[in-house]
Amino acid sequence: MGHLNSGPVKGFREFIGAGVVRKMAPDAARARSLAGEAKSRKKLLAEIREKVGLSDDNANYFVEMAYDILIELLRAKLVARGLYASGEGAHEAEVFFMLELGFSRGETEFMNGLRYFRNGILYYGKRFDADYGKKVLAFLDKVYPRLMA
Question: What is the pTM of this model?
Answer without folding.
Answer: 0.89
